[in-house]
Amino acid sequence: MYRVLICRPNHRLGNTILLTPLITELERLYKGAEIDVLTEGPIAEEVFSTFFCVKNVYCLPKRGFKHPISFAGMLLRIRKTEYDLIVDPCLGSGFSRVLTKFLRGRYKLGFSDDALRSGLTHPVPTAVARQHMAQRPINLLRWAREHYAAESEPVADYPSLDIRLTEEERAHGRAVIEQLLPPSRQAASQPTIGVFANATGAKRYPATWWNEFTAAFESMSPQSRILELIPMHGHSMLGEAYPGYYSSDIRRMGAVMAGMDLMITADCGVMHLAVASKVPTVGMFCVTDASVYAPYGSGSCSLITHGLSAREAAEQVIRSFPSLLGRAGAAASTSASTSPDLDWNEAGLGSLGLSH
């Protein structure tokens, strides 16, 4: 396999970053291969800009049917290449499957329980997909190699999310943090905690919740230095109570987060960006399924906040990182750990809804 195409026409930041483990797995399995990515919108160009194996990132226009000429022109241009392998990593995406069928590939791999009508040369049962969105394509590849090529390997670990920040990018991120922190808070022993307080729809916690959370967090870990990561709309979600960093550039945002000791965020694309920037990340879930989207790797964990007050959530975060955030949290969280009212959804991700 030397020419590989990943067909994932989606414009969301999180879904794009969730493809990075698939690329890592393809690199491991097909050393020397060149990978193209078919996506939607410009985000993927930034995400994959430092991936040596990625040659072309084809970005279909968002809402492409409103731009039929550019949309069709790009697809016809991609169709000129006959790939050795086209991977459709989606589970249940009709649009992704239509494009996979249209494009030229010697082998076409994806999930389907209807082999005859799937349009795939190598369909894989949907039951193989399992839960986590980033790990489904890994299961897809490994099952196909075992059942179609009789190549089985004792590989248990999953590749982690990684946007492959360069050392130069990381150095710039650390420099920005030093500039943002006041001189009185620049002691090396004081942990830097990043907070991203935005999300879409019901995943967004209200401002009053965040105010209670940060107040409790600071009272239990007064040595911590909080920095806010400002959302794309350019407005603070924490009332400008803390130094803030804003960038519309995905990699610059990741570089600054990489300089943090811990990131705290709701379930959103920036949560995945933080994990892919290799900073320990607490992802807080109130409505979505953590078993599908939970951060993993780099000491990251998920926190199910259903049934928790903001203060109780802060207590759990501090108790989960005692060496970083101090001993105060362990004593303060005793009441939370024994409360019968807490609804912990472990979802196979670790005790108390937390998984490192």
UniProtKB/TrEMBL annotation:
Coiled coil: none annotated. One of its GO terms (biological process) is lipopolysaccharide core region biosynthetic process. GO terms for cellular component: cytosol. Keywords: Glycosyltransferase, Transferase. Gene3D superfamilies: Glycogen Phosphorylase B (3.40.50.2000). The keyword Translocase does not apply. SUPFAM superfamilies: UDP-Glycosyltransferase/glycogen phosphorylase. GO terms for molecular function: ADP-heptose-lipopolysaccharide heptosyltransferase activity. The keyword Amino-acid biosynthesis does not apply. Pfam families: Glyco_transf_9. This is Glycosyl transferase family 9.
